[in-house]
Specification:
succinyl-CoA:3-oxo-acid CoA-transferase activity; 245 residues; NagB/RpiA_transferase-like; three-stranded antiparallel β-sheet; nine-stranded mixed β-sheet; 19% helix; Glutaconate Coenzyme A-transferase; globular; 3-oxoacid CoA-transferase subunit A; alpha/beta
Length: 245
């Protein structure tokens, strides 16, 4: 099966439809499959349920799909940095299934491992547990969480080959690897395509068996959400008493 496609639009051809469930990798703006998200936007599909740690920021990443009202529901753990996300949720336009971050990660991992549900102490006694089964184990109370599995996973990798073997870099190795295992079809955008056999098997994060389609996206934009460095003229200089640095 030929996995490598020339464009993100081609890589998603025949996969997109209204009201489907999509997992989108990344953490903030790090490791997001931006080219694939843009192709989803251009397709015009709507009513999407998107599983992602957050929804990018206004105008970048999943924020673009929020702007075009293509997302009906978000399953995520963080709603900060995106004013449109908050506005749509508070107005009732966007449904939100809110998860503690570790719970979201485990729900995705469980879905990829074929585990339909698991019990966790996180969220017990809070709104997170409302409507969910609660059970006691060894004198401790746990809440049941369901595993997550999507119609489509879109992920971003640093290095890959034509067989779909993937390597992620630093913070991008967060939700991407587990999402690649937890969908009917996984499409990866890859910064660096290398010959088959050139990746040490011990270095592969996602084996190619989990990846059905690949698109080479060299030199992607690397956005920075918040710059927290000092002004250049004060860098390296000792702070005066009471001075913020």
């Amino acid at each position: 099966m030929r996995k490598v496609h020339s464009t993100a639009t081609e890589a998603l051809a025949g996969l997109l439809r209204d009201d489907m469930v999509v997992m989108a990798g990344g953490f903030g703006l790090c490791g997001i499959p931006e080219a694939l998200i843009d192709a989803v936007q251009e397709s015009g599909v709507k009513g999407l349920t998107v599983i992602s740690n957050n929804a990018g920021v206004d105008g970048i990443g999943l924020g673009r799909l929020l702007a075009t009202r293509q997302i009906a529901k978000m399953i995520s753990s963080y709603v900060g940095e995106n004013k449109l996300f908050a506005q749509q949720y508070l107005s009732g336009e966007l449904e939100l299934e809110f998860n503690p971050q570790g719970t979201l990660a485990e729900r995705i991992r469980a879905g990829g491992a074929g585990i339909p549900a698991f019990f966790t102490k996180t969220g017990v006694g809070t709104l997170i547990a409302d409507g969910k089964e609660v059970r006691e184990f060894d004198g401790e109370t746990y809440v049941m969480e369901r595993g997550l599995f999507a119609d489509l996973a879109i992920v971003h990798a640093h290095t890959g080959d034509a067989q779909g073997n993937l390597i992620y870099r630093k913070t991008a190795r967060n939700f991407n690897p587990m999402m690649a295992t937890a969908a009917k079809v996984t499409v990866a955008e890859v910064e660096h395509m290398v010959p088959v056999g050139s990746i040490d098997a011990d270095h592969i994060h996602t084996p190619g068996i989990f990846v059905q389609r690949i698109v080479h996206v060299p030199n992607p934009d690397k956005h920075i959400e918040q710059r927290t460095v000092r002004k250049r003229e004060t860098a390296g200089a000792p702070a005066a008493a009471g001075e913020e640095i």
